[in-house]
Design brief:
Strand content: 15-25%
Keywords: Membrane, Transmembrane, Transmembrane helix
Largest sheet: 3 strands, mixed
Number of domains: 2
CATH class of the largest domain: Alpha Beta
Number of strands: 5
Mean pLDDT: 84
Helix content: 40-55%
Protein name: Alkaline shock response membrane anchor protein AmaP
Strand order of the largest sheet: 3-4-5
CATH architecture of the largest domain: 2-Layer Sandwich
Structural class: alpha+beta
Order of helices and strands: HHHEEHEEHE
Distance between the termini: 47 Å
CATH topology of the largest domain: Dihydrodipicolinate Reductase, domain 2
CATH superfamily of the largest domain: Dihydrodipicolinate Reductase, domain 2
Number of helices: 5
């Protein structure tokens, strides 16, 4: 329903954890063995004996990391899809039409001052309602669930139409003194 950030969060967490462990290891090694270099002399000898291969490996590793970073950035920056709903081979309900119909129904609920609806994902609805000051939240929620969303599912002929609902409370209207 929300933009799928699970993979990005997991990758960022793992990258941060690896960086933390490497940094902590270097600090611990430096603290406990002040007289020794960070890399063991045996490792440095191995690197010296196979220097061309080590360089090629590091360049390839750097290129792979650059490609992964660019792919990650591209995935995070690309816009969300707003899919149309194909009901029949000749009947397609556009995302805009579905969003406008649900928004119109949601704005008729008592206590709602404004509604924003977006169709995202597989499709699913992302509904944002701004409630008037003093609106009964339970009544608005019940009417949205029992009337608006049921009507949308029935009109589309689908058993399930997932929806994420965000309720915003409007500030109290102030009286202007003239």
């Amino acid at each position: 329903m929300n933009r799928a950030n699970g993979a990005e969060r997991t990758a960022a967490f793992l990258l941060g954890l690896v960086a933390l462990l490497v940094g902590g290891g270097v600090v611990a090694l430096h603290r406990w063995r002040v007289d020794r270099p960070v890399l063991d002399p045996a490792v440095l000898d191995l690197v010296d004996r196979h220097l061309p291969w080590v360089r090629v490996g590091l360049v390839v590793l750097g290129l792979v990391l650059v490609v992964l970073g660019l792919g990650w950035a591209w995935r995070a920056a690309r816009p969300e899809s707003h899919p149309d709903l194909v009901l029949d081979e000749r009947l397609v309900v556009t995302a805009k039409a579905l969003a406008a119909a649900v928004r119109s129904d949601a704005e008729r609920i008592g206590g709602v001052s404004r509604a924003r609806v977006r169709v995202v994902g597989t499709p699913a609805l992302r509904v944002r309602l701004t409630l008037r000051h003093g609106a009964d939240v339970r009544a608005v929620w019940g009417e949205l669930d029992d009337r608006v969303l049921v009507r949308a599912r029935r009109a589309l002929g689908v058993a399930a139409l997932p929806a994420t609902v965000r309720l915003d409370l409007a500030a109290e209207e102030r009286e202007r003194v003239r």
